[in-house]
Amino acid sequence: MTLVLALGFGAVIGVLLGLLGGGGSILAVPALIFGLGLSMAQAVPTSLIVVGVASAVGALPRVRGHQVEWRLTAIFAATGIPATFAGSAVGRLLPERALLIGFAVVMVVAGARMLADRGDTGTACSTGSSGINWRRCAPRSIAAGLAVGFLTGLFGVGGGFLIIPALVLMLGIEMPVAVGTSLVIIVANSAAGLISHLSGTNIDWAITTAFAGTAIVGSLIAGHFGTRVDTDRLQRWFAYLVFAVAAYVLVDAILLR
């Protein structure tokens, strides 16, 4: 039964990653803890494997379609990878209850961001036809990269719910390119986070393989049919689901543990 649940949860995560370029990973850790019975220490590296692999597969068609802004990817990775190790170190010092409460807060923020964003391209760093004003926008990219990397290491999330708004609203990147760029950044941060969590971690490889396998399939299918889906409506309903799961995590952390 556990493997069946892993297959189902993985498919959902993969589809959401393929369609939205992030956000789906915010449900991976709760699914692993409450759905499959893993501890937080097991769920975080397992989530990083699943999210990283699914994002890599989902990014491939975007890379082939030239829908990745590589300079922004480099900035996010250069700042996010060291921050990922810092987040992992902090996470090892905190009790599981504190991590779950913090994770619930992050989920609420993620849901709020999803409701606030409507896919409109921002102009804060845009220079029109010439592209992005790097001098103006590099500091914003560095700050966003640090935040995403730290959360990846601390909670095992990909951070797409922060990356997409940063790319679209702050930097003026078109949504298709933002999704592709986000997926590549998530791969880099997830790999760094996994390395930082491997020491002394007991990973259930049967669950991880089942989860990751269907996540890959879901991501590929979503990437192929993504242009035919109303992603604004999907993102809105997904935000409501995130709020509901956050409430459950918070109640469990405060009252049941």
From TrEMBL:
Alphabetical keyword list: Cell membrane, Membrane, Transmembrane, Transmembrane helix
Pfam family, one: TauE
Membrane topology, as annotated: Multi-pass membrane protein
Any one Gene Ontology cellular component term annotated for this protein: plasma membrane
Domain of life of the source: Bacteria
Entry's localization field: Cell membrane; Membrane
Main location: membrane
InterPro entries to which the protein is assigned, alphabetical: TM_pro_TauE-like, TSUP/Inactive_protease-like
Transmembrane segments annotated in the record for this chain: 38-60, 72-91, 97-116, 142-171, 177-198, 205-225, 237-256
Protein family (similarity comment): Belongs to the 4-toluene sulfonate uptake permease (TSUP) (TC 2.A.102) family.
Designated name of the protein: Probable membrane transporter protein
Source lineage: Bacteria, Bacillati, Actinomycetota, Actinomycetes, Mycobacteriales
